[in-house]
Design a protein that fits this description.
The chain is mainly alpha-helical. It is built from four helices and five strands. It has a domain of 64 residues. α2 packs antiparallel against α4.
């Protein structure tokens, strides 16, 4: 006795297929091992997985297709993204320290009432540390912006 196969889609009240009326949702690629790329047609961001065997990459939003780079180019892109990540960490550490020292300085000024009551040594050391960390943050942020790389296809 043969089994009946289940229907592919249920019919809705209007007589049409319910799957036909629902919009397709774009599935996001897993974050591990992917390279973030930007579509040159619609400028949407998505992850390109270099371990796939296909010869073209397709944008999930506009279905624009582009050629997959060779393994040497993928290795160069991966190295550039790793360098960008290191520069981001290097720029964010002095930025966080700048915010923390600045908040500590403001708390000390608030509790003391005035810079004269805070004492010249503590006042100028906290103020100088805040200004120095701000300048270091600017330098490292500029280095991060210089090392940024966006891949368009």
């Amino acid at each position: 006795m043969a089994k009946r196969s289940k229907p592919a889609a249920r019919k809705n009240r209007r007589g049409g297929s319910s799957k036909k009326n629902t919009p397709k949702l774009v599935q996001a690629a897993p974050a591990s091992g992917g390279i973030p790329v930007v579509c040159s047609e619609c400028y949407s961001d998505f992850l390109f997985i270099p371990n796939t065997s296909s010869t073209s990459a397709n944008c999930p939003v506009c279905m624009h297709s582009g050629q997959v780079p060779d393994s040497g180019e993928v290795a160069r892109i991966s190295m550039a993204k790793a360098s960008e990540q290191k520069a981001l960490v290097a720029a964010s550490v002095p930025g966080v320290l700048f915010v923390l020292i600045g908040l500590f300085y403001m708390m000390q000024l608030n509790s003391a009432g005035s810079p004269a009551e805070l004492g010249p040594a503590l006042n100028y050391s906290l103020l100088g540390g805040t200004i120095l960390l701000f300048l270091i943050t600017l330098v490292f942020a500029a280095r991060y912006e210089k090392s940024r790389s966006e891949i368009y296809f």
